[in-house]
Amino acid sequence: MDRINLNIKNNHLQIFSNIVSDDVFGMPVINKYKGEIPTKLQAFNKAVTQKEYSNTVHFYLNDKEFARILTYPEKYLEILKRFKSVIAPDFSQYIDMPLPMRFYHCFLNKALAAYWANNGVNVIPNVTWSTPDSYDYSFAGIAKNGIIAINCTGVKRSGYSKYLWMERYKEAVRRLDPKHIIRYGEKMPGEYEEISTYFENENYKMLNNGRKR
């Protein structure tokens, strides 16, 4: 995925002022999702133009394709409120990023999710992580025994990547004990399939069909 600088305009910082945060890390708290299990996902960049409001919006894209939600948070809040549900943002946590940058991206994901949820959007928490030193803050603020979403895009590029993803997936499940998992991307051996609903990566599907992204 392409890397971008994620900057929030100073006049938009106040949108996070009323968000409840975790006592230890200051991570925004995302309440449990109480809606239905999604039946169809649609990427943010297509959802805002096609306006198929019965879909669930996701942000499993290159960061640059949805960075505008930071620049115009109020505008996109009103758009996202129209949809059945929304999976929380997925600003990247690359393992070679400095820890403060990974923490910052994790904070943004949760802050936007909490902001949306506090203003009428049905938000499904998106669980992300990087290296083991990210576990504590990555899982902070997400309620246990709820419905969560997890992405595995790009993981099957190597056996080592699959191993690392699975170890961290298991840690997420151990800590959060989810009631159900919305899984985006290919099914991985050893997952908890009995509590999971799987959705195909649309970009990979298009490539497999011989079309360009």
Layout of SSEs?
Blueprint: E1 41-43, H1 44-50, E2 56-58, H2 68-71, H3 73-80, E3 85-87, H4 99-117, E4 123-124, H5 135-139, E5 147-151, H6 159-176, E6 180-184, E7 196-199, H7 202-208
Parallel strand pairs: 1-2, 2-3, 3-4, 5-6, 6-7
Features:
alpha/beta, TIM Barrel, four-stranded parallel beta sheet, three-stranded parallel beta sheet, 32% helix, 12% strand, disordered C terminus
Written description of the protein model:
This protein has 213 residues and is an alpha/beta fold. It has one domain (28-208): TIM Barrel (Alpha-Beta Barrel). It is built from seven helices and seven strands. It has helices spanning 44-50, 68-71, 73-80, 99-117, 135-139, 159-176, 202-208; strands at 41-43, 56-58, 85-87, 123-124, 147-151, 180-184, 196-199. The strands form two sheets. It has a four-stranded parallel beta sheet with strand order 1-2-3-4. A three-stranded parallel beta sheet has the order 5-6-7, with no helix packed on it. The longest helix is centred in the middle third of the chain and has 19 residues, at 99-117. The model is unreliable at 1-6 and 206-213 (pLDDT under 50).
Described by strand count, sense and barrel closure, the largest sheet is: 4 strands, parallel
Specify the CATH architecture.
Alpha-Beta Barrel
Distance between the termini: 13 Å
The name of the CATH topology is TIM Barrel
Provide the helix percentage: 25-40%
Shape call: globular
